[in-house]
């Protein structure tokens, strides 16, 4: 089976023939048949929507709205983002596929859309980052604050996240404003991509593609973690890390090779004694 994350949607525009959306709608109907008490929620979120984008926007608007900002305001901002940045359609599908491919607890495409706060936090940040680039700093900060409040994930609006990011469990993830995370990375709960506290300017980590960062790890300062490397759970990384290695410990040191071509996809966090 080819990876959905590697496919382009056939046709033109987000409402063209869309295998991901077709799968989500089928899963929604099966869920309603199996658990009728969830019918109203699933129907309004999925089956009453015209596209995958509409469904995600509906869900995110419901989660992010509050006394200060209405769901309609959130929805309109997502629609404005999609019009200005149509590539979000493909990025969204890659993000969904990342969860489906890497999380053994996820056996449906619909699950992250409805329930997984790591996926929700990433889609919230994509909107916050777009608003930040549009000069709408206060709305971007509102979205960051709501994400921190609701999802316990604090990503500064200027931070740059690539496609196919997977945040497993997600609680306690902190990503600073000048951090960059490459494509297809996997980030476990309790991860900090932060500054050292001693400097301003460009002060946060630059994470390469296909990097796996284990639970509770901290990467601090304007340093680089190379493509396809692993940061072991609980590690404190303070220096540049090359490509294709495993780093572990406090302070973090290279203890061996990464063990596979793409650690973020295999999700193997075990460090063997061979290292």
Can you put this structure into words, describing what you see?
This protein is of the alpha/beta class and 275 residues long. It is built from nine helices and 15 strands. Helix 7 (117-133) packs antiparallel against helix 8. The longest helix has 17 residues, at 117-133. 45% of the residues are buried. Mean pLDDT is 92; it is low at 1-12.
Oligomer: single chain
Uncertain residue ranges: 1-12
> What's the CATH H-level homologous superfamily of the largest domain?
serine acetyltransferase, domain 1
Helical run tally: 9
- Number of spatially distinct domains: 2
**Proportion of beta-strand residues:** 5-15%
Ends apart, CA distance between termini:
33 Å
Strand order of the largest sheet: 3-6-9-12-14-15
SS class: alpha/beta
Arithmetic mean of pLDDT:
92
Brief account:
This protein is 39% helix and 14% strand. The protein has 275 residues and is of the alpha/beta class. The strands form three sheets. The protein has a six-stranded mixed beta sheet with strand order 3-6-9-12-14-15.
Secondary structure topology:
Blueprint lengths: L18 H16 L4 H9 L4 H13 L6 H14 L3 H15 L7 H5 L2 H17 L3 H15 L1 E3 L4 E2 L4 E2 L5 E3 L4 E2 L4 E2 L4 E3 L11 E2 L4 E2 L4 E3 L3 E2 L4 E2 L4 E2 L7 E4 L4 E5 L5 H4 L9
Parallel strand pairs: 1-4, 2-5, 3-6, 4-7, 5-8, 6-9, 7-10, 8-11, 9-12, 10-13, 12-14
Antiparallel strand pairs: 14-15
Helix pairs in contact: 1-2, 3-4, 7-8
